[in-house]
């Protein structure tokens, strides 16, 4: 089962499924967990990883919140969805930049997923239209 399919099953989304938004929600859910896992691994490192932990946890929370808001098909709140997608893309960029500073495999993986998620957020932001 995929979140894209679930979104498509919503009665309000059957006529038009926003594929870009579905892709972003899928990536957001995955990125949130990857960032949380990276933060946890950073806690176990012997060096001071305070900033990386903070940025990863912030990114995880923002990705999770953005996914929850973006998947809602009932009612309209396009301006908030677009703002969250923009914020999430910037946060993912910052997380990737921080993780790239560290020579740990968990940071490397986090630095890889974050730009992918940011790109999906930007694509989805462009696809969310103003209400008619």
UniProtKB/TrEMBL annotation:
Alphabetical list of Gene3D superfamilies matching this protein: 1.20.1270.360
Cited PANTHER family: CYTOPLASMIC PROTEIN (PTHR37310:SF1), CYTOPLASMIC PROTEIN-RELATED (PTHR37310)
Protein name: Four-helix bundle copper-binding protein
């Amino acid at each position: 089962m995929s979140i894209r399919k679930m979104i498509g099953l919503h009665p309000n989304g059957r006529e038009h499924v926003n594929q870009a938004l579905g892709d972003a929600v899928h990536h957001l859910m995955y990125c949130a967990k990857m960032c949380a896992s990276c933060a946890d691994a950073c806690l176990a490192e012997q060096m001071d990883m305070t900033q990386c932990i903070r940025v990863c946890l912030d990114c995880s929370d923002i990705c999770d919140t953005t996914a929850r808001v973006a998947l809602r098909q009932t009612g309209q709140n396009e301006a908030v969805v677009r703002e969250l997608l923009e914020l999430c893309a910037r946060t993912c960029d910052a997380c990737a930049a921080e993780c790239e500073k560290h020579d740990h495999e968990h940071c490397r993986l986090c630095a890889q997923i974050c730009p992918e998620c940011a790109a999906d957020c930007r694509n989805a932001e462009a696809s969310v239209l103003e209400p008619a």
